[in-house]
Amino acid sequence: MAGAQPQDKKMIKINTNENAFPPSSGVLKALADFDGRELRKYSSLENNDLRGVLADNLAVHQDQIIVGNGSDDILALAFLSFFNSTDPILFPDTTYGFYKVWADLFRIPFEEVPLSDEFEIVTTDYVNSVNGGIVIANPNAPTGIFKDLSEVEAIVAANQDVVVIIDEAYIAFGGESALPLLEQYDNIFITRTFSKDAALAGLRVGYGIGSPKLISVINAVKNSYNPYSVDLIAEALATAAVVDSAYYAQVNAEISVTRDWFSAELRALGFEVLPSKTNFVLTKPASISAREVFEFLQAKKIYVRYFGDKARLSDYLRISIGTQDEMSKVIQVIGDLFE
User: By its UniProt entry, which InterPro entries does this protein fall under (predicted)?
Assistant: First the structure.
């Protein structure tokens, strides 16, 4: 179940990994300048404005990019387009929950591969297995752990007869992108979103990057049922966000600094904190249950994510990283619980 969306304006909402900062001034200007009269027309089929600036920003060809209605849209399209084998696709047992949902929905056989006791993806589990495709979030969610690019390449290289999807929703907050692997491997498909690093979760725009061959296949599927998936306003604002990439690099670096500070403060309180390269941390409270901390914080109008009945995560909380002031307040309130 997705994180709650409370509407209290006085709360600290750090349960759904939204960006701590507002969109860039360029995005806000693009919104203010948008000519609403244009909405009588359909949006673009090709989204060339957005794909063009993305291609320049990522140093790839425009025909290597597809955009859609959030990375969920892109991932669902990828499942439909690339996973048609009778062999199971592989993804971790603790990862983004929609992978299993899409596999069930589209009747794709799958196998959930257990993470290690340290919540790490085990490379050999994906190198030595017969499969119909692989999906890995890197950094992983909800663990926040990044897998070294050399090990990602080992997985891609060992599975060149299937598509390997690398979900990079959080790559802007740490780690190394798999983009360089595109030059050597045609079986890799990278997905990204504007929701996290571009502070546009409410806009719903995402994109995928792969070989022209893979993009042509997924485009054919997209055009068969929802060709106008990115509306005119969304394309204008997302394009402005890419142009303002320097602003986002600055604020996302600030979020990463706050994340590392917050992790250290939690550890000082006795919490276990997994090493994170995202805009959230997965943490296990000391001498008290995760549920108790969750309920205590919620009573103080601080909303974090508690996974409840998920066996491996029932002792953990996922806490998104807000501003430095917000996270200082969170540490103060958690400290009160242990007094």
Answer: Aminotransferase_I/II_large, HisP_aminotrans, HistidinolP_aminotransfase, PyrdxlP-dep_Trfase, PyrdxlP-dep_Trfase_major, PyrdxlP-dep_Trfase_small
